[in-house]
């Protein structure tokens, strides 16, 4: 069946026996890094090489930290021209040095839809022995809920509770987007099992975007249908879920693949967060 599918990226050449089609345990982003050679970085990011003194100076002139790994020349990476009270971006320092995207997002529940996340790895040679993380919400109200809850006491992930991070407003500001909308970092994908399976989707997305995975959750398709249903939770909506959805719609709609943003009616009560 897989051999009948051909796209510009030749999905058939990267599909294998599909995983988790019988409701087996959810896989997380940490599984991905162990199973695949691909190194997933946020799209439009720089490789994790030590910046020169001149590069660090140029970043600071533009208002970025010398440790910033994104592309400072992209409009969406620059600080929005908004007042502080409209900022939707927070920064957390002092997190566990082995922090994963899944661990970070597992601690950000019951708050609101997340637009983007990014984890800065430790840099011991620069005196940074812990991780830092950026969390950007779609809406200011959600960002305030997170700040009000964790700024007084600190933020820690459940798996590494001894590392308590300090929560502050990010000086690189982000404005509200899609207020009251349904866009999210979660995609619900349905279609033929030869295409809609975890292994094939991971490999396909790797040919299109740089991304992080929170977790991948298989769901039971309707009885009597030869279709698969998967909930794919990316680390970010920005440049990840949004780009993956566009790619699937462009290349696989004719094969019966459908993709929607996650809804609160799915088994995870806050799947869209």
UniProtKB/TrEMBL annotation:
Domain of life from the UniProt record: Eukaryota
Residue segments, region Disordered: 1-31
Composition skew (Polar residues), residue ranges: 1-13, 22-31
GO molecular function: nucleic acid binding
InterPro entries: RBD_domain_sf
Protein name per its UniProtKB record: RRM domain-containing protein
Organism: Lasiosphaeria hispida
